[in-house]
Amino acid sequence: MDVRSNEPFWLIKNSLPQSYPSLKNDISSEVLIIGAGITGALMAYKLINEEKKVVMVDRRDVCNGSTAASTSMLQYEIDVPLHKLIEQVGLTCAVSSYQNCEKAITDLKKIIKEIKADCGFQEKYSVYFASSKNDISFLKDEFEARKNHGFKVKWLTKDEVEKLGLKAYAAIESKSGAVMDVYKLANALLEYCAAKGLEIYDRTEIEKIKSKHEKLIAETKNGFNIEIHDVVHCTGYESTETVGENIVELKSTFALASEAFDKIPKGFIKRIYWNTDAPYLYFRSTDDGRIVMGGGDREFKNAARRDALLPKKEKELVKSFKKCFPNIPFTLDYSWAGTFGETKDSLPYFGKPDPKKNEHYILGFGGNGITFSVMGMDAIVHSINKTPHPYLEYYKFNR
Ligand SMILES: Cc1cc2nc3c(=O)[nH]c(=O)nc-3n(C[C@H](O)[C@H](O)[C@H](O)COP(=O)(O)OP(=O)(O)OC[C@H]3O[C@@H](n4cnc5c(N)ncnc54)[C@H](O)[C@@H]3O)c2cc1C
Question: To test the ligand 1 pocket, which listed residue (105, 235, 280, 307) has its Cβ within 8 A of the most ligand atoms?
Fold first, then answer.
């Protein structure tokens, strides 16, 4: 599957910081990570710190899947609002999921500091706003649910949001948000892990995995074998190739980056935004003074149809921006399209689809893909070590 259109902003901005060789002989190791996006990079970081011997492969250049297209907003807020998630999955799982995402942002901040990644990480307030009058009571219910379960939230009235340059009816402001450049972070993590012994092979596709006694043999498209004890699939939305399409609904999504402003508009200095529309719109600034926005999701049919929609979606999204922020002159500079997936409960899948096989997955589907990947790396270490972890229960396959 082609998971994104050509030329997302981050790829143009950063080009290809690192390139790795392809695999040209048979090898063996303890763990194979398939996929060198942000999920694979975080998994590698975790396993290398656990002193495992790890090899990683990617069918493309590293970080060139969805990770290159991501708008990289970090939120504890999951696509399904807390009060609705409680109805869907129960109080404990719903509240823990919001707490786990909040913790994931703090964990990621520590990792970025430790590896000294220059990836534009900045903490921000997250503003969830009502785009219509009818959504105010829904937003109030969400505010009460979050407040009652200990999240630090503030109610903003119409007049208060207007002071931020935003035309909306009310909003919930939360402390725990952040932005970064995930393409840069994933590349930095790979470089850090490679220096600590991670073997990376790009342009190396895994076609088949077979069991042999206690081991697994992963066969590459070019006919080489990798013998390992465990495989971690960090293959993003392309995981549907191996786990099937039943667990996720694939969507096409669209993103824009404006020209750089001389001065970032005031409302964007400390805040990121998303709204109550379905599909929702979201907005952030970048450290080079642009505004990045996204939304306009549609059912995914195929990559060609997704990309053909881009000119129409550009117009739609710019119009939506002007409606939300009427006094900010948004001049379009870059646009791109990507595929992403939604699960029924908006939560990720971690662990083994088949308990008998040592094949583990981190599937951080949904708008919180990056925070879910941070959570997944801890869970998968327990899955490999065959020790229990709450995430392996909450986010298990066949739930
Ligand atoms: C437009 C857009 C905006 C987004 N915005 C946000 C956001 O603001 N915040 C957020 O948290 N998330 C966001 N997401 C989601 C987020 O980008 C993804 O969750 C994340 O990038 C997934 O990373 P990954 O490493 O799992 O997948 P990928 O980056 O797709 O990496 C998977 C890798 O696996 C490789 N691969 C697949 N199959 C094989 C195989 N058989 N053999 C070898 N290699 C293989 C691929 O080549 C690929 O490089 C957004 C996504 C899109 C498309």
Answer: 235
